[in-house]
């Protein structure tokens, strides 16, 4: 029981009251907010549902309403199509006579533009080809020069290698001769010592 009492005493009541008041403020401001929630009808949620689907007028069909689905009603479409066709035909007849000279001018401009573009393309190709040939010539000259340098370096390397090999052979021959000389001297000294020991005994 003492633990429960100690726990209640250790709680900071000021913090609890502050959290409670903040929670009540959020709850009240959300519930009594100034924004009104308005319900949406089916034509506001889905665009393919026309407004007339919700308030269908009396037409005398099944259930006293139209038997045609409002989304599939094509009765007005034929009239709209016919008026559009007439408008397009009038515009074509009107524009046919007014635009005849400008069509010829546009064709001449297009032909001139095509000719200029072809000439520019041909010039670009010839310049590119010339640049390519010059690059090939430069590369060939560089390759020949590099090949000469490489041959010269190779000859020098062979010469240096031959000299190194002959020096190393001379050194190893000299070392071998010195080794033989040292061995002969050692044997001679041993023989002399043996003879001296034999004479002393």
List the SSEs and their pairings.
Elements: H1 2-10, H2 13-31, H3 42-45, H4 75-98, H5 100-200
Structural summary, described in words:
- The chain has five helices and no strands.
- With 201 residues, the chain is an all-alpha fold.
- The protein has a domain at 82-162.
- The N and C termini lie far apart (117 Å).
- The mean pLDDT is 79.
Tell me briefly what this model is.
The chain is mainly α. The protein contains 5 helices and no strands. The model has no long low-confidence stretch (mean pLDDT 79).
List SSEs in N-to-C order. HHHHH
User: What is the CA–CA distance across the termini?
Assistant: 117 Å
Mean pLDDT: 79
Range of helix content: over 70%
The best one-word shape is flat
Q: How many distinct beta strands?
A: 0
% residues in beta strands: under 5%
Overall radius of gyration:
56 Å
Number of helices: 5
Oligomeric description of these chains: single chain
Feature tags:
201 residues; single chain; mainly alpha; 5 helices
């Amino acid at each position: 029981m003492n633990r429960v009492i100690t726990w209640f005493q250790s709680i900071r009541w000021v913090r609890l009251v502050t959290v409670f008041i903040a929670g009540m403020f959020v709850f009240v401001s959300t519930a009594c907010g100034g924004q009104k929630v308005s319900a949406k009808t089916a034509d506001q949620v889905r665009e393919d549902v026309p407004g007339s689907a919700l308030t269908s007028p009396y037409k005398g069909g099944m259930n006293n309403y139209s038997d045609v689905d409002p989304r599939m009603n094509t009765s007005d479409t034929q009239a709209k199509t016919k008026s559009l066709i007439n408008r397009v035909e009038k515009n074509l007849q009107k524009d046919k006579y007014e635009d005849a000279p400008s069509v010829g001018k546009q064709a001449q401009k297009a032909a001139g533009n095509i000719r200029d573009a072809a000439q520019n393309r041909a010039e670009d190709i010839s310049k590119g080809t010339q640049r390519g040939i010059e690059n090939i010539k430069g590369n060939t000259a560089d390759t020949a020069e590099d090949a000469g340098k490489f041959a010269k370096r190779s000859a020098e390397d062979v010469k240096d290698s031959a000299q190194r090999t002959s020096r190393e052979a001379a050194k190893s021959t000299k070392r071998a001769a010195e080794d033989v000389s040292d061995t002969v001297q050692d044997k001679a000294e041993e023989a002399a010592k043996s003879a001296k020991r034999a004479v002393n005994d």
